[in-house]
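lol ok so funny story. i was supposed to be doing the assay writeup but got distracted and ended up predicting the structure for this chain instead. priorities right. anyway since i did it might as well share w the group, maybe its usefull for someone
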Amino acid sequence: MDHAHQVYRSRRDALIGAMRRKSGGGVALVPTAPEVARNRDSLYPYRHDSYLYYLSGFPEPEAVVALVASKDGDRHVLFCRERSEEREIWDGFRYGPEAAREVFGFDEAHPIAELASRLPDLASDREALYTPLGLFADWDRTTVATLNAVRERARTGVSAPAEVVDVRSILDRMRLVKDAHEIALIRRACAISVGAHRRAMESAGPGKHEYEVEAELMHEFLVHGAQAVAYSSIVASGPNACVLHYRDNNRQMQPGDLLLIDAGCEYQGYASDITRTFPVDGAFTGPQRAVYELVLAAQLACIDALKPGVPFHDYHAVAEKVLAQGFIDLGLVAGSLDAVLEQGTYKRFYMHRAGHWLGMDVHDAGPYREEGESVRLAPGMVLTVEPGAYIRPADDVPERFWNVGVRIEDDVLVTTGGVENLTGAAPKSVADVEEVCRARTRRAA
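and the output, tada:
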């Protein structure tokens, strides 16, 4: 077992320790995600469940991690597919239980075909059953079947778990603070995505289609070893930039358009999430620049507000304040700053939160509030910072601002001394963005 897999075993030990503190012991059962059919004989590219991967690093489908905390000792158990020469010819390598046990640091491993017969033994005489309730319908049925099988043994003196606990209540808190192994992977994902955004700026231009730019992003992701996108890429030009989750990516870009790109790769199970907005023909117009500089000011103010001990929700309030005042100054909303904030009239042009946790999932696990209070930032937390402004055409909106959509997003690591912007190398200032775009237009000429 190498160092990386020792990290996973340490996480499993931490979960077992939490089970002991909460219930005095118990069994945790964590399944991976099922394979999903795309169409008749084709599956979507497989992506493991984040919780199982967090505890094991095991990448294959049809797997379950079982952890036992009892007075007789702890057990780390893996269920996985058996080796199969025929299936491996068609679908590729499988570890099989014996190799998986050794490579991934489990005490024992069994064929997944034996899961139903072995689960009742694992769950018998346990104080509690920890499992992700409601995550997968088939798994919920397995959980219920297991509990019923244990209850049927009552006359033999066996007792069923007295409580069923959603294991995510523990794992979400664990996943909120990243260890050095995780930070290194996120840092690499961010570096790859920074290069992809620069490549997109260098390749976009009037007359090209959004999907051509998406292809440039994908090239950069894959050529540097990222296995997939962390989420569907948003390549939104002109009016599409005012659609928050635009995904068609099929419009032909026109002179004078802004192009908003929200895209990030996944690297070895960890996400990045960057948004940049730039003029497709190389220079911001006056109204575009005014809105862009407002959003940039809000984003920089948000990053400046982040440090250990600060409540998570504070930086969203910073974004609201800066953007609301900017909308007043641009003539988009009327009234005093206090009135605009209280009445929420700014939400017409800025309607989402300023960011979210980032990790194995692009909207990562982890509470935002605990006991009614905002979670306070601590070293090892990673979050996005992404204020925006989206101005759709309307009779009461000055026409020069119509279809101006701007979002600027970076991925930020909280450190002991403050924060580190992991994606700050992606061009962001007006001067830097226009310089990259001008270099592209010079090459085209």
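Residues 356 and 383 are 5 Å apart (CA to CA). The first strand starts at residue 26 and ends at 31.
back to the writeup now i swear
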